[in-house]
Structures are given as structure tokens and as C-alpha cells.
């Protein structure tokens, strides 16, 4: 079967079938810094009881933590709201989605933004990759399946 590129009309059709909504389920966010030379990274473990929503990490059951390779990480703390994508007219349950960096920064207090900016300056972009791990937490079972 031959691969066919989506047209603009096709993309509009896809977009019209999704709805992004906020939830009362908090997100814990971490900044992860990896060296572009992978040999300079080491394994880290973050003990969290939520579910990573935007990161390929492995769960280490013996440590009860998520593992990843990096040179350093910084805990941004909790953000009081999360986001989900809903499929319009579908039985598919809502799926937690990560916030873009710009949205994460809107939720942080100015002091936290300043601390993050100061911390991140230690890692020039030409040598390091900056990523954000976001972990969804369920406060109350509300049908989103994030427990």
C-alpha cells in the first residue's frame, strides 16, 4: 500500500475531532539536562507516584522510581492543573497530554522561574539538551484513568 500525505483538509478534519481541556489533576514537572555526548550522562532515578505523560523513561520497580539518563535534573514542583485531549464523539477515554514549556512557565511563580533560569544557565545549548518530564497525578478518581 502506498503512503499518502495528508492534505490541509485532512488535517482540519483530524483537528476538528479533538478537544483539549484542563483538569484539576496536578502535574509535577522536572527539567532534565542531557549532554549531547551520551557518555557524559549517568542514570538518575526520580521517585514519583504519578504517571509520566511525555517522557520515555523506564519504571524501576525495585527503587519505585522512574529512571533516565542525564547529567542533572531540577524539580520545578507542582502545577495545579493538567491537560487532556478528548476525542469528540468517541468512546476513547481522555488522554493526559504534556504542556509546552511556555505553558509550564505561565504556571510557575516568578521566584521559581528565576531559580530555573539561573540553574539552566550552567548548561549551554550547544553542549546540552533540555527536556521536561511531566508527571500526572490523580487527586480523585474522575474517570480519566490516571489513578
Summarize the structure.
The protein is α+β, with helices and mostly antiparallel strands and 147 residues long. Helices cover 18% and strands 39% of the residues.
Structure characteristics:
147 residues, disordered C terminus, alpha+beta, 3 helices, three-stranded antiparallel sheet, single chain, four-stranded antiparallel sheet
Describe the structure.
- With 147 residues, this protein is an alpha+beta fold.
- The protein has one domain.
- The chain is built from 3 helices and 10 strands.
- The strands form 3 sheets. Strands 4-10-2-7 form a 4-stranded antiparallel beta sheet, covered by helices on one side. Strands 1-8-9 form a 3-stranded antiparallel beta sheet. Strands 3-6-5 form a 3-stranded antiparallel beta sheet, with no helix packed on it.
- The radius of gyration is 18 Å and the shape is globular.
Order of helices and strands: HEEEEEEEEEHHE
User: What about the largest sheet?
Assistant: 4 strands, antiparallel
CA radius of gyration: 18 Å
How many helices?
Answer: 3
Query: What fraction strand?
Result: 35-45%
Poorly predicted ranges: 140-147
**Through-space gap between termini:** 40 Å
Strand order of the biggest β-sheet = 4-10-2-7
Instruction: Report the principal-axis shape.
Output: globular
Estimated helix fraction: 10-25%
